[in-house]
Design a protein that fits this description.
The complex is a heterodimer of chains A (112) and B (115).
Chain A (H helix, E strand, L loop, with lengths): L3 E4 L2 E5 L4 E7 L6 E7 L5 E8 L4 E4 L2 E6 L4 E6 L8 E8 L6 E3 L3 E6 L1
Parallel strand pairs in A: 2-11
Antiparallel strand pairs in A: 1-3, 3-8, 4-5, 4-9, 6-7, 7-8, 9-10, 9-11
Chain B lengths: L4 E3 L2 E4 L5 E6 L6 E7 L6 E7 L2 E5 L7 E4 L6 E5 L8 E8 L9 E2 L3 E5 L1
Classes of the chains: A mainly beta (112), B mainly beta (115).
Chain lengths: 112, 115
């Protein structure tokens, strides 16, 4: 059974710092891995999607890597801003219908 | 607005009552997913539809839960005889089929509180 873990559960850093969020999964047979952002009272916004054959994806200040063999993904946020404050969730697609198994998220606070 | 919409956004009910939630997907998306998210946890898959066909149901979806998508457009999720443990955020997402199903677009969710 696939299990997804995110560490740390919460993180508070000063504005401008570069930071790394971690996601680990127990079964390397995944179809894809996605990073989402969730703001209070709002739905989930997809940030980056990495297909199983890919190693990383980049969008602006965000970079996500995937190492299937070790069951790990990282989300790197460069030059953090207060607007980056949110909960970041990692989800793995486990079948051809891309059913998602989710981590519990990392709550990120960027202090001005 | 061409995003996924959900109604209502918030629902407070008493234990034992029935509740129904609605999800309107992005118009050209024929896949529709329901998830449940409790406080401090990630979403858990409940069920998904391709057009009007319900193709998969999680074991989390007890017999008190029923989901429909009668015309392959909007979907409803009904919970009968609600219990306090049903209190959660219910999220809906939609996607295109095939490889494009990798990208699921989420609605704002319906927050349910059962007293």
């Amino acid at each position: 059974k696939q299990e997804v873990t995110q560490i740390p559960a919460a993180l508070s850093v000063p504005e401008g710092e570069n930071l790394v969020l971690n996601c680990s999964f127990t079964d390397s047979a995944i179809y894809n891995l996605q990073w989402f952002r969730q703001d209070p009272g709002k739905g989930l916004t997809s940030l980056l999607l990495i297909q199983s054959s890919q190693r990383e994806q980049t969008s602006g200040r965000l970079n996500a890597s995937l190492d299937k063999s070790s069951g790990r993904s990282t989300l790197y946020i460069a030059a953090s801003q207060p607007g980056d404050s949110a909960t970041y969730l990692c989800a793995v697609g486990i079948d051809s219908n891309y059913q998602l198994i989710w981590g519990a998220g990392t709550k990120l606070i960027i202090k001005p | 607005d061409t995003g996924v919409s959900q109604d209502p956004r918030h629902k407070i009910t008493k234990r034992g009552q029935n509740v129904t939630f609605r999800c309107d997907p992005i118009s050209e998306h024929n896949r529709l997913y329901w998830y449940r998210q409790t406080l401090g946890q990630g979403p858990e898959f409940l069920t998904y539809f391709q057009n009007e066909a319900q193709l998969e149901k999680s074991r989390l979806l007890s017999d008190r839960f029923s989901a429909e998508r009668p015309k392959g457009s909007f979907s409803t999720l009904e919970i009968q005889r609600t219990e306090q443990g049903d209190s959660a955020m219910y999220l809906c997402a939609s996607s295109l089929p095939g490889l494009a199903a990798m990208a699921q677009y989420f609605g704002p969710g319906t927050r349910l509180l059962v007293l």
